[in-house]
Design a protein that fits this description.
The protein is an alpha/beta fold. Helices cover 38% and strands 21% of the residues. It starts with 5 loop residues before the first strand and ends in a 13-residue tail after the last strand. A seven-stranded mixed sheet has the order 14-15-16-13-12-18-19, sandwiched between helices. A five-stranded parallel sheet has the order 9-8-7-10-11, with helices on both faces. The protein has a three-stranded antiparallel sheet with strand order 5-6-21, with no helix packed on it. The protein is built from 15 helices and 21 strands. The protein has helices spanning 41-58, 63-79, 81-92, 96-116, 155-166, 180-192, 207-216, 229-242, 264-276, 293-309, 328-343, 379-382, 398-406, 421-430, 468-471, and strands at residues 6-8, 11-13, 20-25, 28-37, 124-126, 132-139, 143-147, 170-174, 200-202, 222-226, 245-249, 254-258, 286-292, 347-350, 369-372, 389-395, 410-411, 413-417, 435-438, 454-455, 474-481. It binds 2-aminohexanedioic acid. Residues 105, 151-152, 155, 282-284, 443-445 line the site of 2-aminohexanedioic acid.
């Protein structure tokens, strides 16, 4: 197997460092996916220089023509959906049904971006003066540095990249070191679809080196980062100092609330999918389950019974419900939180350890884990774990449930199961999250709506939908005075 390369300056090239890192299958460490460049700051430097040339060309390409490229990208992704899903599962572990969905989110984002090429609306508004026009329109910004996580190897890069490109920016892409193969495949598709080569640069490597060099680079005015709140803070400090435009998408501690009047069958399916899908490694994962007194005991009993039956395994094998964690450090972190939960006095209702099945011994598997009697305010209840660990909190009523939901520093998504329409609307109004689901789990955002969170989850920007186009473009205003005279705004007509 040959080593993978970066894509810089319009060509596939080896890293300046001459160093590579291994990418192995988390379900079976004996399976080597490939060796990928451990690039250095010099590679980022070359990528940015090339991306600046790419930008000069791309910003002059009409937006509908930029959209045409993205439509072809969507077509290619659709035609390769199965192969992409397979390589993604192989390098990050979640079951094929989920990686297929991940690719589909990329396809949806491509087609949405393609049509946006014929909108990119500005406004034309009346001037306060006679014979004068006033209007706004959108301009591209420059080189966008995109730093993405492992858990949605296709959806999250495309959420950022396609709107960035549609708006006329060029891109330097640094995928997570756990999913470099997906990043490679995506860039191949962009090139095949006819994107001018210097418009996209792919630089593999470590966040502390490549990501940092990108964030520090004076000629990268736009940064979009998805990852931990701790790293996001560092990125934000630099971008603040350098006056960069920055979109942050960070941690979550999302709750599903189930009230006494809820459809419990529905709520049960919801929490199993929300908590253990992607092995709990989603920013939108359900990591807290807030249950009202009246249904608490029976719901926990049914939930534990079902969670115990979830089938752990290789995501590429039919019948697998839950894949491995992405790497050893991530499993060690989950184990640490199980210890924290125990020491805080929570009751371990199921899971809590590695599976005994010998066929899983070469992967980073961990059992779906549920703690009950979790105290609001405890570390288990407050901190993001990013693994298959669900904390159950008992409450008396909807008010208390809402307060518990809001009592964390994150605010990505929330979910409420109830048949009472007034409670449902109050939840949408009062829960401090960027997304609230009614009678649906905390995961399942659609590509054409804004995605993001409040508090320490984000910094006010959204991905997806129509709002992301605001982030990747600059508003410019034009005034055209055809009166033939000096007209002084705010003065001559008042
Ligand atoms: C994430 O949780 O990291 O909402 C992104 C969802 C997906 C995107 C999640 N469409 O489940």
């Amino acid at each position: 197997m040959s080593d993978f390369k970066n894509f810089i300056g319009g060509a596939w090239v080896a890293p300046s460092t001459g160093e590579y890192f291994e990418n192995r299958n988390p379900a079976d460490q004996r399976d080597l996916v490939g060796r990928f460049p451990a690039s250095g700051a010099a590679d980022v430097q070359r990528a940015v220089e090339s991306a600046k040339r790419g930008f000069e060309e791309w910003k002059r390409t009409p937006a509908p023509a930029r959209g045409d490229v993205l439509r072809r990208v969507g077509d290619l992704m659709a035609s390769r959906k199965e192969a992409l899903a397979d390589l993604m599962t192989r390098e990050m572990g979640k079951p094929l049904a989920e990686t297929r969905g991940d690719v589909q989110e990329g396809i949806d984002t491509a087609y949405y971006a393609a049509t946006e090429g014929r909108r990119l609306f500005g406004h034309t508004v009346p001037s306060e003066l006679r014979n004068k026009w006033a209007m706004s329109f959108r301009r591209p910004i420059g080189v966008a540095g995109l730093i993405t996580p492992f858990n949605f190897p296709m959806a999250i890069p495309t959420w950022k990249m396609f709107p960035a490109l549609l708006c006329g920016n060029s891109v330097v892409f640094k995928p997570a070191e756990d999913v470099p193969h997906a990043g490679h495949a995506l860039v191949e598709i962009l090139l095949e679809a006819g994107l001018p080569p210097e418009v996209i640069q792919l630089v593999h490597g470590m966040g502390e080196v490549v990501g940092k060099a990108l964030v520090d680079h004076a000629d990268v005015p736009l940064i979009s980062f998805t990852g931990s709140t701790e790293t996001g803070r560092l990125v934000g400090e630099t971008c603040g100092r350098m006056h960069k435009r920055l979109s942050l998408e960070m941690g979550g501690k999302n709750a599903q609330i189930v009230l006494d009047d809820a459809d419990l069958d529905l709520a049960l399916e919801g929490v199993l999918w929300g908590a253990f899908g992607t092995t709990g490694q989603r920013c939108t994962a359900t990591s807290r389950l807030i249950l009202q007194d009246g249904i608490h005991d029976q719901f926990v009993e049914r939930l534990v019974e079902r969670a115990r039956k979830l089938k752990l395994g290789d995501g590429r094998v039919a019948g697998t419900d839950v894949g491995p964690l992405v790497h050893e450090a991530s499993r060690a972190n989950v184990e640490r939180y199980v210890e924290i939960g125990r020491s805080e006095g929570a009751t371990l209702a199921c899971g809590g350890g590695r599976p005994s099945d010998a066929s899983l011994a070469n992967g980073f598997f961990f059992e779906p884990t549920i703690f009950t009697d979790v105290r609001a305010g405890s570390r288990l209840e407050q901190e993001e774990i990013f693994g298959p660990v669900l904390s159950v909190i008992r409450v008396r009523n909807a008010e208390e449930a809402f307060a518990v939901n809001n009592g964390v520093r994150y605010g990505l998504s929330s979910s409420v199961y109830t048949r009472d329409v007034t409670v449902a609307f109050r939840a949408m109004q009062d829960l401090d999250n960027g997304i609230t689901y009614v009678n649906a789990p905390t995961i399942g955002a659609e590509a054409h709506l804004p995605f993001g969170g409040v508090k320490e989850t984000g910094n006010g920007h959204r991905e997806g939908g129509w709002e992301v186009y605001e982030f990747y473009s600059e508003t410019k205003v034009g005034y055209v005075d055809y009166s033939g005279a000096l007209q002084r705004a705010q003065i001559d007509n008042y």
